[in-house]
Amino acid sequence: MRSRSALLAATLLTAVSGPAFAQGYQHPKGFYVGAALGGNFLTDSDLTNSGSSINNQAEYKIGPAGALSLGWAFGNGLRTEIEGAIRHNNVDKVSGTGASGGDGDMQAYSLMLNLLYDINTGTPFTPYIGAGIGWAYLNANDIKTLNGTRTVDDSDNRFAYQGMIGVAYSLSPQWKLSLDYRYFATLDPSFDAKNTTNTVKVDSDYNSHAVMLGLRYHFWTPAAAPAPATPAAPPAARADIQRSFLVFFDFNKSDITAEAARVIQQAADHAKRGGVSRIIVTGHTDTSGSPQYNQRLSERRAANVREALVRQGLAANSISTVGKGESDPLVKTGDGVREPQNRRAEIVLQ
Fold it and tell me: Model confidence over 129-153: pLDDT tens digits?
């Protein structure tokens, strides 16, 4: 039992921690149906009763196994499905205390909920791993010569679990051919063992190994490959334009002079030719007057230049203004100096 639990835990752990997907492969998404057939090897099972002398072991022949499934693929490699299966094995012999031969068969009907993970290899071959839990109906049919005289002809319902590993081959995006190994087991069942005088319970076990060939159909159409991207046209070359212009003002004035208007028009022409989308106008003053007064004067100068640029056809929302007062002179002077080069506004095309 310990080894069975370890196998199931390892299978579940691997199923949710597969490798990264290879490039260029589309995992199916949506409903699918499947069917599988194969051979089933049922390991020897004990038939014992601790309160009597019954201590036998049933050995089985290899028998057929089949399964039908209805599932959902999530499109990322994970799949979940409901699976109904049947496994059948004839008894080869019964050995142990009082046994002299063998007859009968064992059948297992199961309904399982499986979780599987497809491992993308970037080829038509897709390995997969999975695990499942569910319920099994076990039917021990006419197993004779138990303790010489008793016959087991009974059924039991038990919790079942399984692990599987296999590989699928893509016949087409919808059709998958698969070959896998499955380990299937249940919690230990118990059956009635009868003779002519009484009936006792015997404890047993069920562990099956199967190799199955399957076929799946996915109700899914792959997404069409995207059309080749049309190369974007290269951006138009921007004209080689002048980026900075200086507009000068008379002492203590913010009016646009004729010379200043000529410079503003020149700046507007360059902005249009170069496709400029942002313009910054910064106003300045000399050091004559108080800093507070000069700050306001520099702001008026910048605002008047902006209005003149708008009149030249430039968008108002593309032009921002800044007033720096006497804090950033073009020519360094002492306080109270009327320097013409510092009475200016700078137009910068960005």
Answer: 999 999 999 999 998 877 667 889 9
Listed as ranges, residues in the chain with pLDDT below 70 are: 1-25, 100-101, 147-148, 224-239
Question: If you ran DSSP here, which 8-state letter would residue 329 be given?
Answer: -
Q: What's the Cα-to-Cα distance from 162 to each of 64, 151, 170, 182, rounded to whole Å?
A: 17, 29, 25, 7
Tokens matching residue 245:
């212009």
Buried b (16+ CB within 10 A) or exposed e, 11-43: bbebbeebeebeeeeebbbeebebebebebbbe
DSSP string, 216-282: EEE---PPPPPPPPPPPPPPPPPP----EEEEE--TT-----HHHHHHHHHHHHHHHHTT---EEEE
∠ CA 82-85-91 to the nearest 5 degrees? 155
> Residue 106 has which token pair?
């064992």
Q: What are residue 213's DSSP bridge partners?
A: 37, 179
Residue with tokens 């031969």: 101
Name the nearest CA neighbour of 71 among 59, 83, 62. Answer: 83
- Looking at 203, 218, 233, the residue that finishes a domain is 218
Rounded distance, CA 127 to CA 340, Å? Answer: 83
The CATH code of the domain that includes 197 is 2.40.160.20
Q: Find out whether 161 and 201 touch, Cβ atoms under 8 Å.
A: no
Q: How many domains are there within the chain? A: 2
The three-state secondary structure class of 35 is strand
∠ Cα 334 337 343 (to 5°): 115
**HSE-up (13 A, CA, CB side) for residue 279:** 32
Residues 49 and 152 in one domain: yes
Instruction: Check if the beta carbon of residue 55 is closer than 8 Å to that of residue 48.
Output: yes
pLDDT, residue 235, reads: 56
Q: Which residues of 86-117 are buried (b: 16+ CB within 10 A; e: fewer)?
A: ebbbebebbebeebeebebbbebbbebebbbb
Q: Do residues 66 and 140 both lie within one domain?
A: yes
Quote the CA–CA distance of 180 and 80 in Å, as a whole number: 16
Q: What's the confidence (pLDDT) of residue 49? A: 85
- The single-letter code of the amino acid at 186 is T
- What is the longest distance spanned by two Cα atoms in the chain? 132
